[in-house]
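Subject: design request, 253 residues
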């Protein structure tokens, strides 16, 4: 399944609030390598993100990184084109090793590298009630995670449900674009049996019912599903919100 290829397709210098905060942002592209991938995933990462990934992997799986030479950190000359080019090559080697080794892909360090930048930005935007911007960031993050992990892995399902939760928090403003993600989440849950992941299912159903109501959709099947779960002895009322349920779930694979 994991015919995954990483490439650093571009870089740019980002100006901070002062010259000392200036840094290089590297555009990471993930795409399927054995087919024509018309929808590659693109995210930006800084040198420090790659360094954290390398150090984390070195700590978790040192034997698998024996042949990796990571670009060293320097105090001056970080914006020299030859250095940036050299770093891009080194980053690609590291990422493609991660793509080829399931033990590296599933590590805490890798999940943090692929997930945390977009997740933290989305959380900030949600806290500021900028739901439309957060929604877009979450879509970007989900696209990358879906390239790296399986459809029903914990990290991918959590990312998918977070998009739905963001739509649910928007007071109906994102019900339209959120509907297709909600439908996808419901389909993904048809084959989920992991008890931890099922803790998100009832809050997901409640959020979907709210979205369906906003859009004037028939919610009867969703209500029937909740009633069925209630008859099975599951608690379906006074449950955490979908966002809370996601935050309470560990995002290990």
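Subject: RE: design request

Done. Sequence follows.
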């Amino acid at each position: 399944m994991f015919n995954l290829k990483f490439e650093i397709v571009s870089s740019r210098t980002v100006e901070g609030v002062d010259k000392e905060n200036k840094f290089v942002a590297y555009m990471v592209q993930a795409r399927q390598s054995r087919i024509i991938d018309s929808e590659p995933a693109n995210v930006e990462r800084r040198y420090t993100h790659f360094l954290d990934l390398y150090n984390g992997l070195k700590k978790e799986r040192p034997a698998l990184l024996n042949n990796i030479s990571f670009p060293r950190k320097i105090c001056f000359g970080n914006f020299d084109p030859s250095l940036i080019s050299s770093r891009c090559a080194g980053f690609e080697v590291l990422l493609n090793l991660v793509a080829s080794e399931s033990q590296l892909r599933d590590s805490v360090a890798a999940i943090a590298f692929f997930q945390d930048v977009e997740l933290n930005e989305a959380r900030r935007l949600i806290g500021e009630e900028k739901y439309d911007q957060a929604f877009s960031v979450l879509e970007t993050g989900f696209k990358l995670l879906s390239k790296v992990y399986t459809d029903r892995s914990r990290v991918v399902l959590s990312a998918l449900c977070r998009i739905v939760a963001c739509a649910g928090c928007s007071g109906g403003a994102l019900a339209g674009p959120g509907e297709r993600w909600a439908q996808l989440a419901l389909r993904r849950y048809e084959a989920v049996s992991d008890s931890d992941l099922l803790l998100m299912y009832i809050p997901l159903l409640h959020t979907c019912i709210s979205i369906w109501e906003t859009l004037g959709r028939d919610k009867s099947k969703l209500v029937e599903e909740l009633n069925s779960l209630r008859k099975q002895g599951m608690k379906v009322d006074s449950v955490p919100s979908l966002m809370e349920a996601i935050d309470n779930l560990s995002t290990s694979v």
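The two ends are 16 Å apart (CA to CA).
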